[in-house]
């Protein structure tokens, strides 16, 4: 290829990267080869060569089209996406890091100080997230990051070698037979293995849920980074449904939550739960994301939509999932009854109905996810 | 090795050849197929169920004359089902026979790991030398397999080689045409996608769908094909759980034609609705929306 075409390919790739697409060098080479094959004369050929080599996810088609139009046709695309509004998600705390409770004042009364600190944590564990101040959030971040979830395992069809098992491991049996002159004296066995069961978090981010969703997303982040890749999925439900598993998989919780924040356009507005669950079911759930999974829904159950729709969608979820856990931060309030229309409609389909207002309740959720009976 | 290069020369050649074998591809898909064959890279097709992803591999095989090797993925699929395994019962029998002649176990070991005892599965067969055109390997519904299998597949697709420890490495002289499909029930690992050319298969537009129905269900009249395509388009507007794909439209047209009808009426639509809609909730929803109204409007629009 002439040098000019190569420069064009590389510059175009750089523009795509600037627009947020992940373009590995291998893809750029493939694009150059593809252009060589289709030629540069036909706009359609160039476009589709780029689509086939530079795009790997349907979500990226929009960005590609926009950059392509700007680059090859020198005109801004008709649909200009609004620049993503930076949203800081998570626990914003003033920069006075550390020292949430009293540190030992270099006095000999160490015991006492430890005691004070311990009880401060104890109080915090049971305090409602909605009543947190900045200092408390700082401490809570540390506590939530320590909540390692253990999810259930499920049997898989993949057979693994085992001391005793359900089916004969013929390859190993034949090998062993060689050592004893062809006589299969020792038989080797295989049995079905186990894998982590997928857990899907659906987090309601309507206005009334703000403090709880903040804490819960931290909890979800811990789960994403500490469990095997692919076994945790996280979605937020606002006026639309957004999958935030990818951004949440980076290690640093603050960076991860900030990334996720930029992806979601409708923080803390309204929610139509039924509508949201329907979108989830259509686009992800029934196709496989929810199949055999443990679904964890964080919501107060206030739904501005029709309860019939919520009920239909819960029934659909119920048919494909393994278990549904509903975490309701209001449940711990004195005198709470699940009479909000949405909650009442959803409850018959829920296996575990648990609290979600405090760190202690998230600790309880860890047990529920590990398969222990709920309390 | 000098071999005649029978790779396609232009995108238009591909589109034409596919059409001759009963598959109407739009420009994007035709370009992706062209590039896959031209650059000899695997083609990764994603899209809703029923848009004709699997058909792509079948039609490439029919066109190039390469053997179609289909690997249907499922959870727990392993090397033994995908690439090769040893025929253990026969190996054990052979060991017995050898023992009877008084040969040593050392010699027997060489004998039982012989090609005679190798069971070849699609991935290995796709890489073995053939006399005819290179085979077409279809790895169907890769999203159903697990990550261990993806990693293994990635290894094969980067080298076009499989190593059987007891025999050595089998490497393809000419890489096979490879088509991977996914319904996107989960995200397939990015490394695998990077090896491939990627195309998201869209639902066809109205005129193309009519053509497809005409081609695939020739027993349906032109008029019926138009009415069915219009009615299917109307059904897709209803926001069903499982919107009808092209495969369903073809089935529907074939069903109505099989009843001896050359046009779509509310009564015929009612009795054949099971060819298009596969969920009880969807059937209920369409009936609630008024099937006869939908059909009437579709017939009007199709003209």
Question: Secondary-structure map with pairings?
Answer:
The complex is a heterodimer of chains A (375) and B (303).
Chain A: H1 3-18, H2 25-38, H3 43-54, H4 61-73, H5 110-126, H6 134-145, E1 153-162, E2 167-168, H7 170-179, E3 189-196, E4 199-204, H8 210-226, E5 232-237, E6 241-243, H9 245-248, H10 253-263, H11 273-289, E7 294-298, H12 307-320, E8 323-328, H13 341-346, E9 352-355, H14 359-369
Helix pairs in contact in A: 2-3, 6-8, 11-12
Chain B: H1 11-20, H2 27-39, E1 43-46, H3 53-64, E2 68-72, H4 79-82, E3 84-86, H5 88-101, H6 105-112, E4 118-120, H7 122-127, E5 136-140, H8 147-159, E6 161-164, E7 168-171, E8 177-182, H9 190-195, E9 197-200, H10 206-216, H11 222-236, H12 246-258, H13 266-272, H14 280-289, H15 291-302
Helix pairs in contact in B: 1-2, 5-6, 10-11, 10-12, 11-12, 11-15, 13-15
Low-confidence stretches of chain A: 76-118
Main beta sheet of chain B: 5 strands, parallel
What is the radius of gyration of chain A?
26 Å
Task: Please tell me how large the radius of gyration of chain B is.
Answer: 24 Å
- Cα distance spanning the termini of chain B: 57 Å
> Based on the structure, what is the oligomeric state of the protein chains?
heterodimer
CATH superfamily placement of the largest domain in chain A: von Willebrand factor, type A domain
Going by helix content, strand content and strand pairing, the class of chain B is alpha/beta
CATH fold-level topology of the largest domain in chain B: Rossmann fold
- Largest sheet geometry of chain A: 6 strands, mixed
**Level-1 CATH class name of the largest domain in chain B:** Alpha Beta
Question: What is the level-2 CATH architecture name of the largest domain in chain A?
Answer: 3-Layer(aba) Sandwich
> How many β-strand stretches of chain B?
9
Structural class of chain A: alpha/beta
Helix % of chain A is 40-55%
């Amino acid at each position: 290829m002439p040098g000019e075409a190569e420069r064009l390919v590389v510059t175009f790739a750089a523009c795509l990267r600037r627009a947020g697409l992940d373009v590995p060098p291998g893809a750029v080479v493939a694009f150059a080869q593809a252009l060589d094959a289709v030629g540069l004369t036909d706009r359609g050929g160039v476009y589709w060569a780029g689509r086939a080599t530079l795009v790997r996810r349907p979500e990226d088609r929009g960005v590609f089209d926009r950059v392509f139009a700007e680059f090859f046709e020198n005109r801004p695309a008709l649909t200009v996406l609004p620049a993503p509004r930076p949203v800081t998600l998570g626990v914003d705390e003033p920069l006075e890091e550390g020292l949430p409770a009293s540190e030992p004042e270099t006095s000999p009364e160490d015991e006492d100080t430890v005691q004070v600190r311990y009880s401060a944590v104890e109080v915090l564990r049971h305090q409602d997230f909605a009543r947190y101040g900045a200092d408390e959030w700082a401490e809570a971040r540390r506590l939530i990051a320590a909540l390692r979830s253990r999810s259930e395992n499920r049997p898989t069809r993949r057979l693994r070698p085992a001391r005793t098992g359900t089916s004969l491991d013929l390859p190993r049996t034949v090998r062993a037979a060689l050592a004893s002159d062809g006589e299969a004296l020792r038989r080797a066995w295989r049995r079905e293995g186990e894998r982590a069961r997928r857990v899907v978090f659906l987090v309601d981010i309507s206005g009334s849920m703000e403090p709880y969703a903040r804490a819960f997303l931290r909890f979800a982040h811990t789960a994403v980074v500490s469990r095997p890749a692919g076994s945790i999925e996280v979605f937020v439900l606002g006026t639309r449904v957004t999958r935030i598993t990818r951004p949440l998989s980076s290690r640093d919780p603050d960076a991860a939550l900030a990334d996720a924040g930029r992806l979601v356009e409708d923080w803390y507005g309204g929610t139509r739960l039924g509508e949201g669950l329907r979108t989830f079911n259509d686009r992800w759930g029934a196709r496989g994301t929810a199949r055999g999974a443990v679904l964890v829904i964080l919501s107060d159950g206030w739904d501005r939509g029709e309860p019939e729709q919520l009920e239909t969608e819960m029934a659909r979820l119920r048919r494909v999932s393994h278990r549904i856990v509903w975490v309701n931060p209001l449940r711990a309030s004195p005198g709470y009854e699940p009479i909000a229309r949405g909650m009442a409609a959803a409850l018959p389909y829920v296996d575990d109905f648990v609290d979600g207002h405090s760190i202690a309740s998230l600790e309880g959720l860890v047990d529920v996810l590990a398969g222990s009976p709920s309390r | 090795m000098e071999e005649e290069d029978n790779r396609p020369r232009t995108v238009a050649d591909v589109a034409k050849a596919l059409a001759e074998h009963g598959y109407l591809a739009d420009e994007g898909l035709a370009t992706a197929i062209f590039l896959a064959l031209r650059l000899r890279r695997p083609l990764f097709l994603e899209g809703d169920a029923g848009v004709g992803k699997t058909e792509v591999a079948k039609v490439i095989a029919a066109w190039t004359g390469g053997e179609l090797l289909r690997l249907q993925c499922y959870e727990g699929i392993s090397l033994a089902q995908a690439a090769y395994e040893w025929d253990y019962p026969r190996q054990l029998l052979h060991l017995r026979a050898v023992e009877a002649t008084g040969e040593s176990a050392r010699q027997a070991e060489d004998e039982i790991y012989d090609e005679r005892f190798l069971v070849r599965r699609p991935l290995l067969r796709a890489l073995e030398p053939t006399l005819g055109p290179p085979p077409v390997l279809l790895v169907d519904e890769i999203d159903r397999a697990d990550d261990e299998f993806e990693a293994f597949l990635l290894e094969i697709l980067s080298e076009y080689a499989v190593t059987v420890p007891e025999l050595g490495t089998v490497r393809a002289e000419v890489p096979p045409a490879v088509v991977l499909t996914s319904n996107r029930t989960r995200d397939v690992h990015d490394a695998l996608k990077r090896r491939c050319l990627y195309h998201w298969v869209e639902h066809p537009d109205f005129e193309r769908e009519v053509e497809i129905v005409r081609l695939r269900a020739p027993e349906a009249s032109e008029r019926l094909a138009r009415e069915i395509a219009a009615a299917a388009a109307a059904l897709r507007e209803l926001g069903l759980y499982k919107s009808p794909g092209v495969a369903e439209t073809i089935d529907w047209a074939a069903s109505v034609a099989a009843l001896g009808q050359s046009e779509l009426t509310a009564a015929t639509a009612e009795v054949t609705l099971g060819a298009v809609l596969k969920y009880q909730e969807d059937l209920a929803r369409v009936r609630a929306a008024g099937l006869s109204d939908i059909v009437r409007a579709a017939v009007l629009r199709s003209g």
